[in-house]
Design goal:
The complex is a heterotrimer. By secondary structure, chain A is mainly alpha-helical. Helices cover 67% and strands 5% of the residues of chain A. Chain A is built from 14 helices and five strands. Chain B is mostly helical. Helices cover 71% and strands 1% of the residues of chain B. Chain B has helices spanning 2-27, 35-53, 56-80, 85-103, 124-142, 144-154, 156-161, 166-192, 204-214, 219-237, 249-253, 255-268, 270-276, and strands at residues 109-110, 195-196. The termini of chain B are far apart. In chain B, 56% of the residues are buried. Chain C contains 17 helices and 23 strands. Chain C has helices at residues 50-57, 80-85, 103-108, 120-134, 149-162, 179-194, 207-213, 236-244, 304-312, 334-339, 349-353, 360-365, 382-396, 412-424, 442-457, 469-475, 498-505; strands at 10-21, 24-35, 40-43, 65-70, 73-75, 88-91, 167-171, 198-203, 216-221, 224-230, 263-273, 279-289, 292-297, 319-324, 327-328, 342-345, 375-376, 379-380, 430-434, 461-466, 478-483, 486-487, 491-492. Chain C is globular, with a radius of gyration of 25 Å. The relative contact order of chain C is 0.10. The chains are: A mainly alpha, B mainly alpha, C alpha/beta. The interface between A and C is medium-sized, with 21 and 34 residues.
Chain lengths: 370, 291, 515
């Protein structure tokens, strides 16, 4: 292509350095924010003011910051649930279903201990809380195992399967908490029963202990991928499944394993949001919103290129943006769903920017035509 | 009972048209997993235009047009930029899901227009769907254009050296594909269930995607599959017709999804694929770069 | 073309064709011409610039400099379509056919007068007439994947002729053909030259074919025209010398029988299905002994791929038994086979044998990650595998700046050396090699073949699968030609004759000798 006296050419990149990737990712995020700025404009709000409000609520405000962090923990766990299969070349878009299952599992344990309706019950936190975590992990794992098993055994398309399970789990939660379902709360408003205070985990500055699970997992996963035998096998399978099979790596084991790990982590995300965040402590009526929020995990996973450490600041950023977005909607009288709009725009911009990972644009001054 | 079957056929029309769109794209080698996103766009924009103008025709045209634009966008990412089609399709889906949730929100609620009249007790779109299936079958199997589409889907480099413009053929298919998805969405929002709610499709697009795999890329089998799933979907909404008071209505809603998984698994078995699996377009999902 | 073409008219001329790629001049001022009714072979090694020239003549690649004249008019090809419209047809080495489509659909694809609605009946009549003229027989309704390699090539030639080609470019026309199919092809080419068609075959190493069919030869080396000879004045030796730039030794030094030991591999009545669900391997039985190279000769697609994969544990056996050192491994996984001394070098270096986005160190780990010495508590011993990689890179002469570059940057020869190093360093008892020298240049080929002989001397059992008759004949102790999933017999390598093995590969001779 010719532009003035310059020739613009696309060249294929073989390798790009870490900082180039970072710059491209940051540019993509900024560009998406720029586009969403038009939504502010259209609603008659100065975009800079809008973003200022979002960021100050999300990261400075004493009410907003803990909410941001709690969302970030949730997003981080969803991101890991996406990343682990992604490193094996598989798409887990079933975080929503797995986290619903995790929430149901955790509350099933609480239910079994008689927590329903017993607001002042003196259940032993030291017993019930670990049991609830285990319940969440096991049910997330079982739901995650299905696509893994089917992928490994029959090579069934995991995208469709995980998506179908999202809907199945969504309706199962409704069945459990609505219209007389076993987990329905006493209010009769179609939400789950509330955990008694004794098994609400302790908070530090409004943040539950699950933050340590999330941070610990990011270090652990980083180490697993970089240094261990199993991490090597997952990466090999993700980059070239036929070569991995040639090297004796079992596609069945890897598919099952990554989805089990993904399911467990997503299950923990369900436990985190519905059982440990202050002011929640129940499966809420709008639980579907958190399934939707889980899709930010895909975005974090794609931007971080599967790096669990890079995912931390990203989860914090998007936790803040969605949290602040909800806040300014009310304050500045914007339409509902600015966080959804941002989700959509971010995703498509990311897709467009992928291109820069594969090509670079070369400007060359042309010789004057004779 | 007739009412139930009529509604089932209405539902199957949406599956038919959306999945037919995907099928045409896939026959040209372009996989679009974001079919639900394209449908959401068609449904939301169609609904908004119809509500504002009070004109159904404009609503449908808007739905088709936005579907075409979405198809073009997917084509741009997948053909011109040559990116991973699964990632691009995910982008289309999440864009549709996120953006329509925002732009459609002020229009939440019923359409409030006189319903589109039935033809022979069925939605007129049922017949449109049948006609589209027949046309697609004929074009794909009997015409030069169809041969070109199938060829770029099987082996684009061969098509290229035979003098076929691969990019042009794929763009044509993927835009047509998007228009059909947009139309399917608009039919949902304007005819089948004219009430707007955020993310109201709840899986129609993904089931359509599975239907394409199920159809073995054959429009006539696709029609059969769509009718099956339309009936199933309608049954899951009205289980009392067959099984009064058995299980909660929420449990019934899971049935179409569970059956979709079952069907997909059946199709991925060796038993199935070694008999009918060869129909899959060989270059499906692979970016093509000119040498 | 409006004007009548007469025998001897120059139909295509290229002048000063130059094409540069980063770091390489693929074509350096190449002049070339061809006349009606002439077969003008272009000879050159891999990398000599043949492929680039051919792509330029067919409009797939645009030259940086130079001019092309077709029927005396200067042309400027933007795409293959321009070339096709001017009467240039091309038959590619990797078949350019759509295997899911029928023969007639393939021939019609892209034809300008195919019409909006395909008129299959008229086309069928016209194509049948062409077939009769050139002595071809092919079922127009058959799906292409049902056809043999020779039939597929026939379809490609028909396709070019049906589009009105006057100049036919053939890329390595005989490389995938069994000897009888080659003869059929050459016969039909002779008829075509009688029809004033010009034919340009591009050939790498089948010098005898150049000598028998062509009128003139242009030899390329490193992007330049080295010489242009009338075939009548050339000999096999002189052509080879021109092509390579030095005298070539045509036969490897045979390593005579290392003392043949006990059997390592015993295969009993093994059958296996291919991916499409067809029985590709139909009950073969053989054994490979210590210090022996057992050669399986065959045109690809006759079951050897399935055999190699079944032995390596990548494909289930439908029936039969595989024993290594007397132990039944028919149902063991590929990992267990690696651990029990089986080594496999696949034909697909990049798709199967290596991971392009992994560094060379990580690629080395592919066959070592499961060894106890290379990890502790599940954590990989990075230093150990790096040292091993660096040692092997030096020992095998893999040309690379360091061990951290990605494998996809290596050339085919260097990658094959790396894979060879990785597998041979495990000292396998049984080594399975599939098309080990495919696509490699002369130097790398020689290196790989010597390494196989070394493995034999180290008393490994080697199963060599190859399409290259010379390779099979010079390396193998015993030869089993394979045809349609079964062995046509077994011949001692020492006394094997080229013609016999060639005929057996084509399925012509049943059970010649049994040893």
């Amino acid at each position: 292509m010719k532009l003035g006296s310059y020739e613009v050419k696309l060249e294929k990149k073989v390798n790009f350095t870490g900082w180039q990737a970072t710059v491209i990712s940051i540019l993509a995020i900024l560009f998406a924010l720029f586009l969403v700025g038009f939504i502010f404009l259209q609603a008659g709000v100065d975009p800079l003011l809008g973003y200022k409000e979002i960021f100050s609520y999300a990261f400075v405000n004493a009410f907003g910051l803990p909410l941001t962090i709690n969302r970030a923990i949730f997003l981080l766990l969803c991101t890991f649930a996406f990343i682990v299969p992604m490193r094996a070349g598989l798409w887990n878009i079933g975080m929503a279903g797995q986290l619903y299952a995790g929430a149901l599992g955790a509350f099933a344990v609480a239910f079994a201990f008689g927590a329903k309706g017993a607001l002042t019950s003196d259940l032993s936190a030291g017993l019930v809380i670990p049991a609830m975590i285990a319940g969440a992990a096991v049910s997330g794992m079982m739901v995650g195992a299905i696509p893994g098993l089917l992928k490994g055994r029959f090579n069934t398309n995991e995208i469709v399967v995980t998506m179908m399970i999202n809907f199945i789990a969504f309706w199962l939660v409704s069945h459990m908490i609505k219209e007389g379902g076993p987990f329905m709360g006493s209010g009769g408003e179609g939400e789950g029963f509330k955990l008694p205070e004794s098994i609400q985990p302790p908070l530090y500055q409004g943040i539950p202990f699950t933050i340590w699970i999330a941070l610990g997992l990011s270090v652990l996963l980083y180490f697993v991928f970089a240094k261990t035998k199993i991490g090597y096998q997952i990466r090999a399978f993700g980059l070239n499944p036929s070569a991995a099979r040639y090297a004796g790596i079992s596609p069945f084991k890897i598919s099952l394993l990554v989805f089990i790990i993904g399911g467990i982590i997503a299950g923990l995300a369900g436990y985190h949001y519905f059982a440990t965040v202050p002011g929640v402590y129940k499966i809420t009526k709008n639980y579907g919103d958190f399934g939707d929020l889980a899709f930010y995990g895909i975005i974090c996973g794609l931007i971080s290129q599967g790096n669990p450490l890079t995912a931390i600041p990203l989860a914090l950023l998007f936790g803040g943006l969605t949290n602040g977005g909800r806040f300014v909607q009310g304050k500045l009288q914007l339409g509902f769903g600015i966080d959804y709009a941002l989700l959509g725009v971010l995703m498509i911009i990311l897709v467009a920017f992928q291109f820069f990972f594969r090509y670079r644009i070369v400007w060359k001054k042309m010789e004057k035509e004779k | 009972m007739w009412e139930f079957f009529a509604r089932s056929l209405d539902a199957s029309t949406i599956f038919t048209i959306a999945a037919l769109g995907e099928l045409i794209g896939q026959r040209s080698g372009i996989l679009n997993v974001g079919i639900e996103g394209a449908m959401l766009f068609g449904a939301t924009i169609g609904f908004m235009v119809a509500k504002v103008t009070g004109n159904y025709l404009l609503g449908f045209l808007a739905g088709i047009a936005i579907g075409g634009v979405i198809g073009l966008l997917h084509g741009f990412f997948s053909i011109t930029l040559g990116g991973d089609q699964v990632v691009n399709g995910m982008g289309i889906w999440i864009l549709g899901f996120g953006l329509t949730a925002y732009i459609g929100y002020p229009y939440t609620g019923p359409l409030g227009m006189e319903r589109i009249p039935d033809a022979l007790g069925l939605s007129p779109f049922f017949f449109v769907g049948i006609a589209l299936i027949a046309i697609s079958w004929f074009v794909l199997s009997r015409t030069n254009l169809g041969l070109k589409i199938r060829s770029v889907g099987e082996n684009p480099s061969v098509a290229e050296v035979s003098g076929i413009n691969v990019a042009k053929t794929r763009y044509l298919s993927v835009v047509t594909s998007g228009m059909l998805m947009g139309l399917a969405g608009a039919i949902y929002a304007l005819d089948y269930n004219p009430v707007w709610n955020y993310n109201f499709l709840m899986g129609w697009g993904f089931i359509s995607l599975a239907l394409v795999f199920f159809s073995m890329w054959n429009p006539t089998i696709l029609l059969g599959g769509s009718i099956l799933f339309g009936t199933l979907w309608q049954l899951s909404l009205n289980p009392q017709l067959l099984f009064p008071n058995l299980l909660s209505r929420y449990i019934w809603r899971t049935v179409p999804f569970a059956i979709t998984i079952g069907v997909l698994v059946l199709m991925s078995t060796k038993w199935f694929s070694s008999r009918w699996g060869a129909a899959k377009p060989e270059a499906l999902g692979q970016p093509y770069e000119k040498e | 073309m409006s004007t009548e073409i007469k025998r001897g008219d120059t139909v295509l001329a290229a002048k000063g064709i130059t094409k540069r790629y980063p770091g390489l001049v693929a074509n350096d001022h190449i002049d070339f011409e061809i006349k009606a009714g002439e077969i003008h072979a272009i000879l050159g090694e891999n990398g000599a610039g043949k492929t680039t020239l051919m792509k330029i003549l067919f409009g797939l690649v645009q030259p940086d400099e130079g001019e092309i004249y077709v029927f005396g008019r200067k042309v400027n090809f933007k795409s293959p379509l321009d070339a096709i419209d001017l009467g240039i047809g091309m038959v590619h080495q990797n078949r350019k056919l759509i295997s899911a489509h029928s023969v007639i659909e393939n021939i019609l694809l892209g034809h300008p007068s195919a019409g909006g609605i395909l008129n299959l009946k008229r086309a069928a009549e016209e194509i049948t007439a062409l077939c009769e003229r050139y002595g071809y027989k092919v079922d127009l309704q058959a799906k292409v994947w049902h056809l043999s390699e020779g039939e597929k090539q026939m379809v490609e030639i028909l396709k070019a002729l049906y589009r009105g080609a006057k100049i036919l470019i053939l890329d390595e026309p005989t490389s995938a053909l069994a000897p009888p199919e080659t003869e059929k092809l050459l016969a039909s080419i002779q008829i075509m030259t009688g029809d004033e068609l010009a034919i340009v075959p591009f050939i790498t190493h089948k010098l005898p074919i150049v000598l028998t069919v062509s009128h003139r030869v242009t030899v390329l080396r490193r992007g330049k025209v080295i010489s242009r000879i009338n075939t009548a004045d050339a000999t096999e030796q002189s052509l080879a010398k021109e092509m390579v730039g030095r005298e070539v030794i045509f036969r490897l030094e045979r390593v005579e029988d290392v003392e043949k030991g006990k059997p390592i591999l015993q295969v009993e009545n093994l059958s296996a299905f291919n991916d499409k669900g067809f029985l590709d391997l139909k009950g073969v039985s053989f054994s490979v002994h210590e210090g022996e190279i057992f050669g399986i000769a065959g045109v690809s697609g006759n079951g050897q791929q399935v055999l190699a994969e079944a032995l390596a544990g990548l494909r289930k056996a439908a029936s039969g038994k595989i024993l290594v050192d007397g132990i039944d491994i028919t149902n063991s996984t590929s990992l267990q086979r690696w651990q029990n001394g089986v080594g496999y070098i696949p034909a697909e270096q990049r798709a199967v044998g290596s991971i392009g986005d992994f560094s060379l160190v990580e690629n080395m780990l592919m066959n070592y990650y499961f060894e106890d010495g290379f990890s502790k508590w599940g954590i990989v011993d990075t230093r150990k595998i790096r040292n091993l990689t660096e040692e092997l890179i030096a020992e095998y002469g893999v040309a690379t700046p360091n061990a951290d570059v990605r494998a996809k940057g290596l050339s085919g020869g260097n990658l094959q050396k790396l894979i060879l190093a990785r597998v041979l360093s495990r000292m396998p008892r049984l080594l399975i090699v599939n098309l080990p020298t495919q696509g490699l240049d002369v130097g790398a080929t020689e290196f790989v073949q010597n390494k196989l002989l070394e493995a034999k001397k180290a008393r490994a059992g080697v199963l060599l699968i190859s399409e290259d008759l010379d390779e099979i004949l010079s390396l193998s102790d015993r030869i089993a030609p394979i045809y349609e999933g079964g062995f046509m017999g077994m011949i001692p390598g020492k006394s094997a004759e080229r013609e016999t093995v060639g005929a057996m590969m084509a399925g012509l001779q049943q059970k010649a000798t049994v040893i």
